[in-house]
Design brief:
Shape: globular
Strand content: 25-35%
Largest sheet: 5 strands, mixed
Structural class: alpha/beta
Number of strands: 20
Number of domains: 3
Radius of gyration: 21 Å
Length: about 425
C-alpha cells in the first residue's frame, strides 16, 4: 500500500472563546466580540515507501518558534514522521487570536497550548486516513489582486500554485500557495475570521464537498490588496476592506484553482523528500532592549503632549515611529538578540512530485521569493512564508534604501536578502 504515494487529510476548529486578544494590529482595541467564520487547523500527511511528509496550515497570524517546535516535536514523538519533514504554516489572518507577545500584549498560554494539542490530534487523524493518491501539480496567474503595499503597483508575482490529491477520481485534498497578506479585514474588525483563505477553501469545497484545502501563504511581506502598512498600523479605515471584498478575493482564487486542476496533467511516480538547512543572516547594529524601552517611553510622553495640543498630524507620525520601535523590541526579545552580529535561520524544503515547497520563517518580500524560484527551473517552486517560526520582515536590498515600516521593524541588515536567497537556492538545488 505504501510503495506508491499515499495521503491523508483532516481539519479541526481552533476558534477560541470570545474576549480573547486578537493578533495583527496595534490599533485594534478590545478582544474578539464575535465569530464571522471559524478558524481551523488543517493537516496533510504523505507517505511514499519509508519517507514521510506532514504539512499543517493554521488560521493564525504567525507560528512562533516555540509553537512550531512544540508541534513538530509532539508529532515526531507520536508518529514515524521526522520533525524535519513537518511544515507548520500560518495563513497569516490578522483576525485570529494573539499567540505570542506584541505591542504590550501577551498571548493566552492556555489557548496556545490548546491550539497545539488540537493540531497534533489533527495530524494523527490525517495519518489514520492514508490512502493511495494520484496528484496534479500546476499554477495559474491571477493578476489584479495583489499590490505592492509600499508603491501600490501591481504585484510582480501573481502566480497561484496548487497540488491536487485524488483518491481515485475524487479530489480529497488540495494544497494552495499564493503571496497575499490575509488582511482584507482591518483593525476595526473584532470578529474571528480566516479572511480570504476561508472563502478560498469554501469555494473549492462547494464543488468538492469532501476536499480538504490547505492554504499556505507565500512571499507576501510587501503584498496586500492595496493600502499602506503605516495607514493600517494607525487603524485608518478603508471602505474596500470588507467581508464582501474578502469573499471576492477568496472566490476568485478558489475558482482559479478549480480551473487549473481541470487543465493540469497527472504527475507520474510522485515521490517525496524533506531537507533542512541553517542559513546565517546578518543583523543590524541594534540597540539594547533596554535602550529601545527608553525610546518607546519618550515617544509615549511626546504623544501625550501632542494630543493635549490637538497636533494630530504630528501625533500620527510619532505614533508610527513608536510602533516601529515596539515591533523591533518584540522581535529582539523573541529571538534573544543581545549584541550578536548574525543569527542562523532554519530553512526547510519539501519535494512533492514535481513541486518543491520552500518554507521561510518570516515575511519574505516578493522580490526575494521570485529570486529563489528562479534558482530551479525544472521544479515548480512554492515559496511558503510564515512557516516553522516567526522572524519578522525579510525585505530586499532596494527596500532598505527606501526605509519604511518593514525595514525599520526588521532585525536584519541590507545584506540579508542576498544571503537568504543564496541559502535557499542551495537547499533547492540539493534535490535530484
Amino acid at each position: 500500500m505504501f510503495d506508491s504515494l499515499c495521503a491523508g487529510f483532516a481539519a479541526r476548529k481552533i476558534t477560541p472563546s470570545l474576549g480573547v486578544t486578537m493578533a495583527g494590529y496595534a490599533a485594534r482595541e478590545g478582544g474578539a466580540i464575535g465569530i464571522h467564520d471559524d478558524l481551523y487547523t488543517h493537516a496533510m500527511v504523505l507517505r511514499a515507501g519509508s519517507k514521510w511528509v506532514a504539512i499543517i496550515s493554521m488560521d493564525l497570524v504567525e507560528i512562533p518558534d516555540d509553537l512550531a517546535s512544540k508541534i513538530r516535536e509532539a508529532v515526531g514523538t507520536k508518529t514515524d514522521i521526522p520533525s524535519e519533514a513537518i511544515l507548520v504554516g500560518a495563513t497569516h489572518t490578522h483576525s485570529g487570536p494573539l499567540v505570542s507577545s506584541g505591542f504590550g500584549e501577551t498571548g493566552n498560554a492556555a489557548i496556545v497550548d490548546r491550539i497545539a494539542e488540537i493540531t497534533v490530534m489533527t495530524v494523527l487523524e490525517a495519518l489514520d486516513g492514508l490512502h493511495p493518491v494520484r496528484i496534479k501539480v500546476g499554477s495559474v496567474k491571477v493578476p489584479d489582486i495583489g499590490k505592492n503595499r509600499r508603491s501600490l503597483e501591481p504585484s510582480p508575482d501573481p502566480e497561484l500554485n496548487f497540488i491536487g490529491f485524488y483518491f481515485g477520481n475524487r479530489l480529497a485534498g488540495c494544497l494552495v500557495n499564493f503571496p497575499l497578506h490575509a488582511t482584507v479585514l482591518g483593525a476595526e474588525n473584532r470578529q474571528y475570521t480566516a479572511d480570504y483563505p476561508g472563502y478560498l477553501r469554501r469555494t473549492i469545497q462547494a464543488k468538492h464537498p469532501l476536499c480538504h484545502t490547505l492554504f499556505l501563504n507565500g512571499a507576501a511581506g510587501n503584498i496586500n490588496i492595496g493600502y499602506s502598512a503605516d495607514a493600517s498600523a494607525l487603524g485608518e479605515v478603508f471602505d474596500f476592506r470588507t467581508f464582501e471584498k474578502a469573499a471576492e478575493v477568496g472566490q476568485r482564487l478558489g475558482t482559479a484553482v478549480l480551473d487549473g486542476l481541470d487543465a493540469a496533467d497527472w504527475v507520474d511516480n510522485a515521490g517525496i523528500e524533506a531537507r533542512e538547512l541553517g542559513v546565517a543572516l546578518p543583523l543590524k547594529n541594534l540597540p539594547s532592549v533596554a535602550g529601545l524601552g527608553q525610546q518607546i517611553a519618550q515617544k509615549t510622553q511626546a504623544m501625550d503632549k501632542l494630543q493635549a495640543m490637538d497636533a494630530w498630524e504630528e501625533l500620527g507620525k510619532i505614533e508610527v515611529s513608536k510602533i516601529y520601535l515596539e515591533c523591533l523590541r518584540d522581535s529582539m526579545l523573541h529571538h534573544e538578540i543581545k549584541g550578536q552580529q548574525q543569527v542562523v535561520m532554519p530553512l526547510q524544503a519539501l519535494q512533492i512530485g514535481s513541486a518543491i515547497l520552500v518554507a521561510i520563517p518570516g515575511e519574505l518580500f516578493v522580490e526575494l521569493g521570485l529570486a529563489i524560484r528562479q534558482s530551479r527551473g525544472d521544479y515548480r517552486i512554492f515559496l511558503v512564508g510564515y512557516a516553522n517560526g516567526a522572524w519578522g520582515y525579510l525585505p530586499n536590498q532596494d527596500a532598505f534604501a527606501q526605509g519604511g515600516y518593514e525595514v525599520e521593524t526588521s532585525i536584519f541588515n541590507e545584506k540579508m536578502g542576498e544571503a537568504l536567497v543564496q541559502g535557499a537556492a542551495e537547499l533547492v538545488k540539493a534535490f535530484a
